[in-house]
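Example for reference:
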Amino acid sequence: MRQTILQSLRTPLYERHRFIRARMADVGGWDLPIAYGSQIEEHHTVREDAAMFDLSHMCVLDVRGSDARKFLSKLLANDIGKLKSPGKALYSCMLNGEGGVIDDLIVYYLNDEAFRIVLNAHAAGRDVHWIRSQITEERHCVTLVPRRQDLVTGDVEALAMIAVQGPNARKKVFSAIPSTRVADRVKPFNSIVVHDAAVGELMLSRTGKTGEDGFEITVLAKHAVQLWDTLSSAGISAAGLNAWDTLRLEAGMHVHGRDMNSHTSPFDVGLGWSVDLGPERDFVGKAALRVRPQASQFVGLVFEGSGAVARTQSPVTSLEGEVIGKITSGTYSPTLQIAIALALVSPDIKLGSYVSVEVYARKVSAKVVRPPFVRDGGPVNEQ
């Protein structure tokens, strides 16, 4: 039987990554840079200075039409009505009818008939299909315009995304591209569109998953290499997805498919704050959430006396041996120089208590804490 080998998808910056000798790997069907040298050095550069990541595999989706706001109000668990000024962003979960998390996303308000959603990469095709099915079911006057290169159709141009993160990120971006200095007034979780003579239209969003300040910059894919090189010449080094993962885990940030999925509700994974259950609005999954009991709580674990990393899905037990949960993400923290993990455990487990996790056939004790582990480049005091 003949086997079909599918080529991994590539971002507009693929050749640039190869040129600077990035270590590439298949990540969810994409050929992406996981490191350019030392993962630990890249991690520390973000915590102490600034570095940039290619996030062009994320899916930018424009939602347009006279019913755009009405439609998103029904689609999302958070209240889109909070978006009242251009550039304002909102974090939300998109739920199924049972209240499970299909995906988490950020939505930006462009104008009354145009919003921009940034979807996670691994499930973009599935997410777009789900959103289209909801448009059809509700008969809304809405058009979805995918802007990721593998999903683009018609005369729409593809977009790329570069994240610059770290305490010096904004200063270095302004130095690299003087026209972006107008973004200095942009507050966290807001964005601004800047027109630059050299690299065209840029959308600078003061968002990110590293726990540091900075921008996620959206640019036309045809200008991505030029933007990357401009940022590089200003002293912004490249960082790979391995560093991104340790940074986001230290920051207590979720990844769909590991820390949550379509079977967990937002309340199970510590995202209840992103759900608006007010009586004025209905949304997909709301009725289920109202009667669905909380099955777990989302916590951090700090391991004692061991650098060994707990594997995803490893059982978490009480010190008496009772299984009380599971690991969702684990890593060695370069900032704290200890092993840490995120876990879903019984709602009855108290912060500050101790649990046990099997790490490579050895029981290791861990303290239950509230994420994040690191904030503003250093350890959170309560750890």
About this structure: Residues 91 and 106 are 5 Å apart (CA to CA). The radius of gyration is 21 Å. The first strand starts at residue 23 and ends at 27. The longest helix spans residues 124-138.
